[in-house]
């Protein structure tokens, strides 16, 4: 039996979806967005775009997964403007909250989770806004 080398692009879309669903959506976007048209189409599926969690839970706190300015910048300048209308839920940590929320309009956003945020930041963010609860 001869050895064969199968690459990521050789896999059917269904298998790629199964693999990618096991990964963090943020990492999937950051790693695969812009690689090729096929991967762009796959990662723009609602499975990956509807809920973006920019935090990880540590033992006593929530950690921002966009703590690196390069990653945050790419998300805010390239990725979020392209998928903004598909996002239904965002989970954010206070340090990246302002950048992510101002990167695009989120017309289908129904859930906004804010972590490690103080009362003063909440007041500045929501003053003059009308929300339905």
Automatic annotation (TrEMBL):
It comes from the Eukaryota. InterPro entries: F-box-like_dom_sf, F-box_dom. Residues 5-51 form the F-box domain. This is F-box domain-containing protein. It comes from Rotaria magnacalcarata. The lineage of its organism: Eukaryota, Metazoa, Spiralia, Gnathifera, Rotifera.
